[in-house]
Prior knowledge:
Elements: H1 4-20, H2 26-33, H3 39-51, E1 55-56, E2 65-66, H4 68-77, H5 102-117, E3 120-124, E4 134-140, E5 144-150, E6 156-162, H6 169-183, H7 188-198, H8 204-223, E7 227-230, H9 239-242, H10 245-257, H11 259-269, E8 275-278, E9 290-299, E10 302-312, H12 317-336
Antiparallel strand pairs: 1-2, 3-7, 3-10, 4-5, 5-6, 8-9, 9-10
Amino acid sequence: MLDDRSKHLLKTLVERYIADGQPVGSRTLSRAAGLELSPATIRNVMSDLEDLGLIASPHTSAGRVPTARGYRLFVDTMLTARRDELPAAESMPTATLQGEQPRQVLNQAAQLLSSLSHFVGVVRVPKRASVFRHIEFLSLSQRRVLVILVSPDGEVQNHVIHTQPEFEQSQLQEAANFLNAHYAGLTLSEVRDRLRTEVERLRGEIAALMLQAVELGTESEAQQDAVLVAGERNLLSVSDFSHDLGQLRRLFDIFEQKTQLMRLLDVSHQADGVRIFIGGDSRGVPFEDLSVVSAPYTVDGAVVGTLGVIGPQRMPYERMIQIVDITAKLLGNALSQPR
Length: 339
């Protein structure tokens, strides 16, 4: 337990370090805190905070820097930004995020998070079963067929199929008409299973084409289980990382593989509001010097995914909370709009 004086000094130290990026000495802390305390008292409090594992002294400086535990205490108990002080969804312009297809809107959200934070923006793509409203086949050259799948919300998937026989456009139209008449409104997995049982009574080559098209659609459905990432290069200009190229390479590997990002965002999926994960304090964050600020977003009142900002521990948390919270509301509003 910290007394009020110790809390105030710790809060001031964290804020100064976030702002300046330099270890905070007792004189700087005394001036910034605005307290009438002697240098000896300041040094004693800093020593106590260090004993508690809340701050540490780098070898190259007499000043102190926050530890992961210190950041944790700061964001949990000392931040002044509160959720009820953030802008309401109805007061924000929905035109900030817009697109003909949901995927465009999700990509825009990742870019917005990155541009506002100057760090990395991540958006978890909603998990959902693909339902097709309409399908078309278009004959291309060299035994290739373009498959166009349209979902109920207007999202369009395009796939190219390589076929053994050369199909006439009239045959392709016949196949599309059959699928649209009998299977529209079903999930692609349901269509696939039904086609497999009915393949006997359909003409073999056309049935194989239909099944191949639906198989591609279900593969895309599995790939929806992904994270959109924007602004990885922003980390190159972060002084906390730029001195260690090995660490930067490991960070970029995480953004490339995305598995750990999905696990971390999945934890936030069940949360109510903004959550902060600090490396060294949270097992979910793979690097000690990283922090993640995340929040779920909703479509028509239901939580469908998560988004967030990834950056150094030394980030302006109050601003990141606002950016993440507002973007989550904007994204939910945009995806809830009728298409």
